[in-house]
């Protein structure tokens, strides 16, 4: 059985300022750096070693990954967040948070649909996990990307109610081209 550790990046300046952040980027905050260090400590306490690591091309994901491991990693555009079009960088009160309504909401602003994001994440992570020598993989991505990946494999409603905070870790088992959610490790908010 192969294992994927899919992790959301640490808190960023745009997260703290309540700005919409998809393909645009902002740096990790001090809190975001601390969250990444806490994730690293969790992996170390569990004695988890990765044989490969991947990151979204966004700086916030690369920086998070580099705090967690010194393993060389590959940057993947397929792990990027949803493209929110003209709403990128705008205040998050303009965002649509209802899962059904936001399925196509961002298309009107030149962004992408949840279905496109889900298909991109599934293809990227399946291609990664199909590699013969990939047994314990770390992939750092984004909140919306992680949510849409989860909904490809199960109803995400109950997990969504618990939230997908920064640096939460989605643990998936991978077998026969399918991902099975084993657990979600959430950090305590301080």
TrEMBL record:
Listed GO CC annotations:
cytoplasm
Q: Where is the active site?
A: 9 (tele-phosphohistidine intermediate), 81 (proton donor/acceptor)
**Pfam assignment, any one:** His_Phos_1
Please tell me where substrate binds in this chain: 8-15, 60, 81-84
The residue ranges crossing the membrane are: none
An annotated Gene Ontology molecular function: phosphatase activity
Q: What PANTHER family has UniProt attached to this entry? A: BROAD-SPECIFICITY PHOSPHATASE YOR283W-RELATED, HISTIDINE PHOSPHATASE FAMILY PROTEIN
Which protein, by its recorded name, is this? Answer: Histidine phosphatase family protein
- Per the UniProt record, the source organism is Massilimicrobiota timonensis
């Amino acid at each position: 059985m192969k294992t994927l550790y899919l992790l959301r990046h640490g808190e960023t300046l745009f997260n703290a300022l309540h700005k919409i952040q998809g393909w645009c980027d902002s740096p990790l905050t001090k809190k975001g750096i601390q969250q990444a260090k806490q994730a690293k400590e969790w992996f170390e306490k569990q004695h988890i070693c990765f044989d490969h690591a991947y990151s979204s091309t966004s700086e916030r994901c690369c920086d998070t990954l580099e705090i967690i491991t010194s393993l060389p990693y590959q940057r993947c555009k397929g792990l990027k967040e949803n493209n929110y079009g003209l709403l990128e960088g705008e205040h998050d009160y303009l965002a649509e948070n209802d899962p059904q309504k936001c399925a196509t909401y961002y298309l009107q602003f030149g962004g992408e649909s949840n279905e496109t994001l889900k298909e991109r994440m599934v293809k990227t992570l399946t291609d990664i996990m199909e590699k013969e020598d990939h047994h314990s993989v770390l992939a750092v991505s984004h909140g919306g990307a992680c949510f849409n990946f989860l909904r490809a494999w199960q109803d995400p409603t109950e997990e969504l109610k618990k939230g997908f905070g920064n640096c939460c870790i989605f643990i998936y088992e991978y077998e026969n081209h399918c991902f099975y959610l084993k657990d979600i490790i959430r950090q305590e908010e301080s």
